[in-house]
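Risk register update: the risk of archive-format incompatibility is retired. Evidence:
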Amino acid sequence: MASRPAKTAARTGGESPLTAADVQAFVAVRARALQRLEAALADVESKGGDVLAHVQELSVAERDAARALGVDWRRFTWVRDQIGRLLTSQRQQEDQRL
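Archived output:
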């Protein structure tokens, strides 16, 4: 029995497929969020203090970054989930080949 290609996570349940603009927005939001977290961590390391009190959670930093960049939060979270599913699927396929 021939194996069929796995359904990609780029298109699921009637949703539109990921677009280049989706991926670009995801990368921009994630980059800005990580930059802010790195800056906050560097500030805590240089001045002292409780890291948990001064460094946001990634999801909070992403929400702030999305708002600052004008990216729709709901679309961003959908794209983030789709990218996660796609990466998981790719890892599983690689594991099966090993």
